[in-house]
Amino acid sequence: MTVTAPGRVELTALTTGDGTPLKLALAQATRRARRRAFLLVCPLLLFVLVTFAVPIAQMLYLSINNPIFSQHMPRLTAYLQANPVRGVPGEEGFAALALDLIDAKKNRTAARVGVRINYARAGSISLFKSTARKVRKLTGPPYREKLLKINEDWADLHLWRVMERASSSHTLSFYAAAIDLTYDLDGNLVQVEPERRIYVLLFIRTWVLSAVIAFLCLLLGYPVAHLLATLPLRYSNLLMIMVLLPFWTSLLVRTTSWIALLQSQGVINDLLVLLGIVGEEGRVQMMYNQLGTIVAMTHILLPFMILPLYSVMKTIPPDYVRAARSLGATPLTAFLKVYFPQSVPGIGAGFLLVFILAIGYYITPALVGGSSGQLISNQIAFHMQISLNWSLAAALGAILLFGVVLIYWLYDRLIGIDNMKLG
């Protein structure tokens, strides 16, 4: 600001010491600060992308993409896409099948193609392998007659329907299989036979057991967290060490310890027999069932409930409860009306954390759950390691992921994610 004449003031732009306009200098400083912040966060962002976002994206894509059949049976794939299956194909379709099987035998890919078809039609692995061994001896047409002579299963309309669906590298059939649906001969989705309906039951069992475990953790963890928040420091530190002690012990050790305690010839049953509560022939079966899964997982996940509760309860001023008592409230009324509502954010955080951890647990149900205590995670592991049906495993995992996201969204809509406190 300069004075040019009496009573007249002229405004000039503010500058820094080197003559740079102040507005421009502030903008440059802000950009530099943002670049520094981004460079500091960049390693963590890259780590999250590589180890979290990319694997999840690959899993979601794998659940709808399986190009094994189309890659290794190109002639038959082209034929099936150009000629929708209305019945068992004629010579042209069998010629494409025979020529592809000859190449599959040379490239040693017949078993892989058979495994892909075997997902929807049992017995296809041996069919493709045996036919590939014999089809190389064919000298020419008629391929249809010769293939049917090798194995009459090639006249199965259901087989051709399955190959038609497998000819498309992108499919939703694995999601259908993940909820116990299959295709009939007319191409309609129908439920599988009752004895094969396992995935929906496993999903329901996973959700129910996870909710039960989370509730038990809340029931057991709330008083412990309250003690941690109200006891004198020297006692609360000792109690905190006892709470954190499981974290310093291997998960496998903790799980096998429960096997020693709960099995039929274990410590608890021996104690019940010694006290005369049960007889030698009436030992309680507490292992390799849902009870074993609930007990072991509740013990393992209990600290994940206590810590969020403690972090919230520690911030609640004890004066509030004393004020309520001084105004005539009973201890129970003071707790329910004053203390408990302030601990709700910790309850929500702990319950959600334990629930999400429980639905993805694998080792503990595998060791102590038996057939009735298995969760959907065990079936995912089976398809990844034993059956090698990775697309079905990815579909099961994707449904589980969508369920978790839905629960998180419902929690945000009903309670509000801003009200959840982990510390």
Question: What characteristics describe this protein?
Answer:
two-stranded antiparallel ribbon; single chain; 19 helices; 423 residues; mainly alpha; MetI-like fold
What does this molecule look like?
The protein is mainly alpha-helical and 423 residues long. The chain folds into three domains: 2-62, no CATH class; 68-171, no CATH class; 199-419, MetI-like fold, CATH 1.10.3720.10. It contains 19 helices and four strands. The chain has helices spanning 22-62, 68-72, 74-82, 91-107, 110-118, 124-135, 143-150, 157-166, 173-178, 199-230, 233-244, 251-262, 267-274, 290-313, 318-326, 331-359, 363-368, 376-385, 390-414; strands at 2-5, 8-10, 181-183, 189-191. It has a two-stranded antiparallel sheet with strand order 1-2. It has a two-stranded antiparallel sheet with strand order 3-4. The chain is flat, with a radius of gyration of 33 Å. The protein starts with a strand and ends in a 9-residue tail after the last helix. 27% of the residues are buried. The mean pLDDT is 86.
